[in-house]
Amino acid sequence: MFKISEFSKISQVSVKTLRYYDQLNLLKPNHTDRFTGYRYYTADQMFQLNRILAFKELGFSLEQIRQLVGEQISQEQIRGMFRLKESEILSNLAKEQAKLTQIKERLSFIENEGENQKSHDVIVKEVGPQLVLSYRQKASLKQIPELFQQVDDQLGNSVQPSTPQIVLWHGCEESEDEIDMEVARPLTLDMPSRPPFTVKQLPEVPMMATLIHLCRTTRPCSASAVLAAWIERNGYRMKENEPRREICLPHEKSNDPEAHVAELQVAIERA
């Protein structure tokens, strides 16, 4: 058997913590000398201590751990708990990494505001009517690829890699995770609508302020700010009830599947 100081050294758990576990009836010494009060532990109790520490890492309270230890949870059940915790941590890491990437992108936009405005040429042009198959949904930016996949599944083999992706931005009333958006693919031939997919004709727009830029559809970009500044500076205003359009083609020189060459389109009229 090991004295508490020896057990502390071999387990790398403090004497104070071992005494506290004893008080909680969480890990009782194998033997306590009734004359000296010295606590003694066996090597087998290392396994019990390791389980306690494992449950602590999973986020259980000491009271919950005491109940779990009393229930004699199997090794397979503990492994399952750790796998769930591992999945949760990986998911949180992915979310935090996405936030970090977005922060870096936002910071880059702020640091290069002047350059961004100089590097984009806004063109006003007439845009003709366009027949499309569309799918309107309230969703977040990161769901855009999934929405397009559903449209492409509906179209089947008629979708070509060179066919543009069109995003119509209708508005955002409640949350950035519930943006009212519509994704669409151009059609060369009419076809019947099959809800929730709609065959419709995007209307002709006599004056459309347009700007070509590189972007990722799943992330905000500086192009909208540049276009907004141009509209305001040149005496125009956005035409009511016309969604902002974004026409996207894959960026062939990029290894990023979400990278696109996009034409941002905003219907305008004289202010």
UniProtKB/TrEMBL annotation:
<dbReference type="InterPro" id="IPR009061">
    <property type="entry name" value="DNA-bd_dom_put_sf"/>
</dbReference>
<feature type="domain" description="HTH merR-type">
    <location>
        <begin position="1"/>
        <end position="71"/>
    </location>
</feature>
<dbReference type="GO" id="GO:0003677">
    <property type="term" value="F:DNA binding"/>
</dbReference>
<protein>
    <submittedName>
        <fullName>MerR family transcriptional regulator</fullName>
    </submittedName>
</protein>
<dbReference type="GO" id="GO:0003700">
    <property type="term" value="F:DNA-binding transcription factor activity"/>
</dbReference>
<dbReference type="InterPro" id="IPR000551">
    <property type="entry name" value="MerR-type_HTH_dom"/>
</dbReference>
<keyword id="KW-0238">DNA-binding</keyword>
<dbReference type="InterPro" id="IPR011256">
    <property type="entry name" value="Reg_factor_effector_dom_sf"/>
</dbReference>
<dbReference type="Pfam" id="PF13411">
    <property type="entry name" value="MerR_1"/>
</dbReference>
<dbReference type="InterPro" id="IPR047057">
    <property type="entry name" value="MerR_fam"/>
</dbReference>
